[in-house]
């Protein structure tokens, strides 16, 4: 029941204390509950600065962020809190958390879900981030839980309820999905690793006291950006229990000195099957060969061809899987290239603007733009539905090429990013032969 005034003990704190320091520490649900207790708190809770701060705390960038009026932050935050998880692509091994029999006919083919479809198993979770591996889809909730649909090694038969990953009752603040493993970081900056979904307890990684700024999972390796040594990378083991001592290699010239501080500070890293890519504060992209048999890694080299393709724009983000590298510029343009025979070839600037996030799967890529639109390109194998654009005939009508490979199955190719008909999305992910996203609930499951 709403009263006219705040309790006397709160009156003396002042408006600035509430708006700038107290209310932003709560989540959207708590603020909406608190504002019902008295009219003064309701008035304070309407301040756009409160909702802007809450949004940034609950949903760190990159997010699809179409321009809005400043007073629109409360609506955006509530929309984001009521968003839902969508998935599409191969339904094999329960990787998308959806059974084909539960999907409308116009959203599925013989081998998978071919248009974005809501995942009911995650319907009660407010999702902060989403990721995909080879055979699984994972979500990180705003309450710090990691849940996984599918299996790290594709051994699951059918669809099972998502498994909640644990680590000493930790609250997780970040996660990163590799091909067959997952990394999670908790609120005290411990990093855990999971190698099997049947083992819900994570393995604590012992990095020798390194202060980690960012962690990234790759195909079969992982990397961290640290304060002390710069970029450290290691090969993921097949088996690990309890605490795992990480024997990492350091990427030269990334930790302190001329190439590791100030404008040369590393801000992003991506780990391919046989290379590693980094971006620096001043927008430069460097790459080096990844060889775990070596005692030391080669010094990273400036990639002039990629910078030339984007006309010198600064590069802020890098994404990779296997041998494909996709880079995003500060102006939201994207360039892709392939690692072949120890070097990058076929550098190509793609015709797409305002990109805030890219997701790279085994054969296909997705891009998310500022207005929440998804674009797909690459190859959709065996009519699995990973593009999310419908049947092979519908992909062909959108400009793709289709090559029959067996009865009722085709490989479809999109040479350039092509719009996926879907609700506005906030986050995207791509895996083996599937894709996932967090998007607007109001649009439901239909396109």
TrEMBL record:
Native organism: Wickerhamiella sorbophila
Limits of the F-box domain: 20-55
Gene3D superfamilies according to UniProt: 1.20.1280.50, Regulator of chromosome condensation 1/beta-lactamase-inhibitor protein II
Highest taxon in the source lineage: Eukaryota
Designated name of the protein: SCF-associated factor 1
RCC repeats: from-to residues: 83-143, 372-441
Residue runs in coiled coils: none
Listed PANTHER family: REGULATOR OF CHROMOSOME CONDENSATION
InterPro entries: F-box-like_dom_sf, F-box_dom, Ran_GTPase-activating, RCC1/BLIP-II, Reg_chr_condens
Pfam families: F-box-like, RCC1_2
């Amino acid at each position: 029941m709403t009263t006219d005034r705040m309790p006397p003990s709160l009156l003396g704190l002042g408006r600035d204390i509430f708006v700038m320091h107290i209310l932003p520490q709560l989540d959207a649900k708590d603020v909406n509950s608190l504002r019902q207790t008295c009219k003064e708190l309701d008035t304070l809770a309407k301040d756009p600065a409160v909702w802007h701060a809450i949004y940034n705390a609950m949903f760190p960038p990159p997010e699809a962020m179409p321009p809005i009026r400043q007073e629109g932050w409360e609506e955006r935050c509530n929309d984001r809190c009521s968003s839902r998880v969508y998935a599409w692509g191969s339904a094999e091994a329960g990787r998308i958390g959806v059974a084909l029999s539960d999907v409308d006919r116009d959203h599925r083919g013989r081998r998978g879900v071919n248009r974005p479809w809501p995942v009911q198993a995650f319907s009660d979770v407010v999702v902060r981030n989403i990721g995909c591996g080879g055979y699984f889809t994972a979500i990180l909730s705003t309450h710090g839980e990691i849940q996984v649909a599918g299996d790290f090694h594709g051994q699951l038969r059918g669809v099972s309820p998502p498994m909640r990953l644990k680590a000493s009752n930790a609250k997780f603040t970040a996660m990163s999905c590799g091909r067959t493993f997952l990394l999670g970081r908790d609120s005290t900056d411990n990093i855990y690793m999971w190698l099997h979904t049947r083992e819900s307890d994570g393995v604590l990684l012992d990095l020798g006291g390194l202060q980690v700024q960012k962690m990234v999972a790759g195909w079969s390796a992982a990397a961290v950006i640290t304060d002390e040594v710069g970029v450290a990378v290691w090969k993921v083991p097949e088996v690990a229990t309890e605490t795992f001592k990480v024997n990492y290699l350091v990427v030269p010239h990334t930790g302190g000195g001329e190439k590791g501080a100030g404008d040369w500070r590393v801000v992003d890293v991506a780990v391919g099957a046989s290379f590693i890519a980094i971006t620096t504060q001043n927008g430069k992209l460097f790459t080096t060969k990844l060889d775990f048999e070596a005692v030391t890694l080669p010094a990273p080299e400036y990639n002039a061809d990629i910078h030339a393709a984007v006309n010198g724009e600064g590069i802020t983000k890098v994404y990779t899987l296997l041998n494909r590298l996709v880079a995003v510029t500060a102006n939201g343009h994207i360039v892709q290239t392939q690692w072949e025979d120890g070097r990058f070839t076929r550098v190509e600037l793609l015709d797409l603007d305002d990109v805030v996030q890219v997701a790279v799967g085994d054969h296909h890529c997705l891009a998310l733009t500022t207005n929440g639109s998804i674009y797909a390109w690459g190859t959709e194998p065996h009519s699995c539905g990973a593009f999310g654009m419908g049947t092979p005939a519908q992909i062909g009508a959108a400009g793709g090429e289709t090559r029959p490979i067996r009865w009722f199955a085709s490989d479809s190719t999109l040479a350039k990013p092509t719009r996926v008909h879907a609700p506005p999305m906030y986050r995207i992910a791509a895996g083996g032969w599937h894709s996932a996203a967090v998007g607007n609930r109001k649009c439901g499951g239909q396109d």
